[in-house]
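# nightly structure sweep
# worker-07 picked up a monomer target from the shared queue
# config: single-sequence mode, recycle default, output format = structure tokens
# input follows
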Amino acid sequence: MAFPFQPLSLARRPFGRLNQGIRTADLLRLRALQRRIAQQIDAVGYDVVFAHNCQFGQSPAILPFLATSTAYYCQEPPRQIYEPPVDRPYARFSRVQRLGNCFDPLPGLYRRTLARLDRQNTLAADLVLVNSAYSRESLYRVYGIFARVGYLGADTEVFHPLSLPRQDFVLSVGALNPRKGFDFLLRSLALLDQARRPPLVIVSNHVNAAEHAYLGDLARELQVPVEMRAMVADAELVQLYNQAALTVYAPVMEPFGLVPLESMACGTPVVGVREGGVRETVVHGETGLLVERDPRLFADAVSSLLRDPERRDDMGRQGVEYVKREWSWERSVATLERRLEEAAAH
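# output follows
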């Protein structure tokens, strides 16, 4: 059964400052709707309710109202509250805006409301699942709880080797926003000799227009060839994984990240940053390389693999077997079933 929810219309200039208040009202409206949904769920008599992140309030507002046992799969806490923003010229406030923020109570009201409700919702779950050990540590710092790790997996029937000839580009995949670290990739590739500098292909399922323009300007300034594609079909994405010389992956403290698994399942080694959940999927020296967030170190790692196709091929073969063995959907589903049984027993 579907329960429609329509967010309130946002105000336009010169009344844009009202939007934080409107978004706060939406959080409270959504909470009232979730109370009614919880009543209908409880009336049926299910063993357990499996909930995941909400696009409006991050944690599902239904959790505090359910009498039925609950398992909440938390992909991540609201990072805009608990982590510093990634600096961008287009996101900096003008002097007038900073002055206005000193007197405007609505942004603070929205953040406090979101944080309060998110905490209440999360702590109401009987069992909280996370996608990585890194996320488990993050949730302890934010909520003071010990979540259970339930790793995700890759669909190896979709993501698999196609025996296509490799081309001279490197691939990166992720939403086009500042936290995905595409600017770091451009700065790293710019350190390679221009004659050997590979083009960067970025595939995104969501595009921030301002970030798109920023990255385009940065690529031209650094003289790094870049192609940004959006909303490609799975078949095209699999083909790109199979054609790329490497997958390069540098999101900022990514909680987990399916991209390395998809790439390795296609036989393409990954060069990634040694942070967040990436440390739990890429096996350094076997299925790819992990380095610190330093453009020179990252560039050296990319260069070393581009110069050694035999090593890339060997890593690719190991990556395919590794994903099949350790990161299959069957294994993930079996873990999830055990966790749901724990929640139902609770």
